[in-house]
Design brief:
Arc Repressor Mutant, subunit A; globular; 4 helices; mainly alpha; 87 residues; 0% strand
């Protein structure tokens, strides 16, 4: 595995180009969101099982997954990362 640098070739073509985009999108997520998403996508446990592993309510897992998916979709669609709202 190689590290992702900002000056990596953005015009890279081929199957590895999509992987780089997803890798960058994942790197931009907050750690809790990234962990929840990777658990669900790669290992396939239920949301309840992820909640137990992370020690949070199931609603928190659902929220983290929803936010992670939106941010990754926005990134892959060429959008700017959403700013977090602070109350």
């Amino acid at each position: 595995m190689s590290s992702i640098e900002e000056n990596d070739a953005p015009d890279m073509a081929g199957p590895e180009a999509g992987g780089r985009d997803i890798e960058r999108a994942l790197a931009m997520l907050v750690e809790d969101q990234r962990n929840a998403l990777l658990l669900v996508v790669l290992e396939g446990p239920s949301y309840r099982e992820v909640a137990e592993v992370q020690g949070v309510p199931i609603g928190t897992v659902m929220s983290r997954l929803a936010r992670a998916r939106v941010q990754i979709k926005n990134y892959l669609d060429g959008g700017r990362p959403a700013l977090r709202r602070v109350k």
